[in-house]
């Protein structure tokens, strides 16, 4: 089995509050063969303690990357999925079994991030804004809350089961998250200049809709560069005509 998917899938814990969940996440990565873990503003943890929870984990633990913000952790990742068990306005979360084949195919070509929120409240709205797609893990509705490390294990186990078939797919090059953020920022400016929406909330909703559209389209760097250039040109023309 090729290692491409296993090195391209990056597990991101956003503000984990319990050392035991970091250790259990390390164990989940080792159980499933995945290799990369990023932590955003984590609780203080001991390398020795993690090794107690996941024996012989020091090679992986030594490669853990820590970031001061989620934006920094995701800046160089083309595709970002956020795991959330709650409905978030007009954003539709797709179930893990439904989206896993697409996600695995994307990981065969480029890095993808699986983002999990803190134990007490999951991913907040600001974090969700940085995700290309929202994913839910189907569980019994009478007890929908999953332990953080259990959610990680279920996600990685699902992707592992699909890795062999995805490796045979042709590779594609994807625009990274920073490129998506840039074009959406320009679009936001353009909509403001055009007075496209009557309220700030309507404009924010329009930008979110386009963000989700771009996520489904999985544009290449050259495609998103073209859209970025178009937005810049339109902004310049509006400024010139003022």
Would you kindly provide a written description of the structure presented here, covering whatever features stand out?
With 242 residues, this protein is α/β, with parallel strands linked by helices. The protein has two domains: 4-166, SPOUT methyltransferase, trefoil knot domain (Alpha/beta knot, 3-Layer(aba) Sandwich), CATH 3.40.1280; 177-241. 52% of the residues lie in helices and 13% in strands. Helix 9 (177-194) packs parallel to helix 11.
Descriptive labels:
single chain, 242 residues, alpha/beta, Alpha/beta knot, 7 strands, elongated
Number of strands: 7
Number of domains: 2
**Overall radius of gyration:** 19 Å
- Strand arrangement across the biggest beta sheet: 3-2-1-6-4-7-5
CATH architectural name of the largest domain: 3-Layer(aba) Sandwich
What is the straight-line distance between the termini? 59 Å
Helix content: 40-55%
CATH topology of the largest domain: Alpha/beta knot
Q: What fraction strand?
A: 5-15%
Q: CATH homologous superfamily of the largest domain?
A: SPOUT methyltransferase, trefoil knot domain
Average pLDDT level: 88
Order of helices and strands: HEHEHHEHEEHEHEHHHH
Q: Report low-confidence residues grouped into runs of 5 or more.
A: none
CATH class of the largest domain: Alpha Beta
Largest sheet descriptor: 7 strands, parallel
């Amino acid at each position: 089995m090729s290692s491409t998917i296993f090195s391209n899938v990056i597990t991101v814990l956003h503000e984990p509050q319990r050392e035991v969940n970091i250790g259990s996440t390390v164990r989940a990565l080792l159980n499933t063969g995945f290799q990369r873990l990023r932590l955003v503003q984590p609780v203080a943890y001991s390398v020795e303690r993690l090794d107690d929870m996941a024996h012989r984990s020091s090679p992986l633990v030594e490669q853990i990357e820590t970031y001061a913000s989620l934006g920094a952790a995701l800046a160089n990742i083309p595709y970002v999925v956020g795991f959330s068990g709650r409905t978030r306005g007009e954003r539709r979360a797709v179930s893990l079994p439904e989206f896993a084949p697409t996600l695995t195919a994307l990981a065969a070509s480029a890095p993808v991030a699986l983002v999990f929120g803190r134990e007490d409240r999951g991913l907040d709205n600001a974090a969700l804004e940085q995700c290309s797609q929202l994913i839910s893990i189907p569980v019994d509705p009478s007890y929908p809350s999953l332990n953080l490390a259990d959610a990680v294990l279920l996600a990685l186990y699902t992707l592992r089961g699909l890795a062999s078939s995805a490796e045979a797919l042709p590779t594609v090059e994807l625009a990274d998250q920073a490129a998506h953020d840039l074009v959406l920022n320009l679009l936001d400016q353009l909509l403001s200049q055009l007075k496209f929406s009557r309220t700030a909330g309507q404009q924010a909703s329009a930008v979110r809709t386009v963000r989700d559209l771009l996520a489904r389209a999985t544009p290449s760097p050259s495609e998103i560069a073209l859209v970025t250039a178009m937005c810049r040109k339109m902004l310049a023309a509006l400024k010139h005509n003022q």
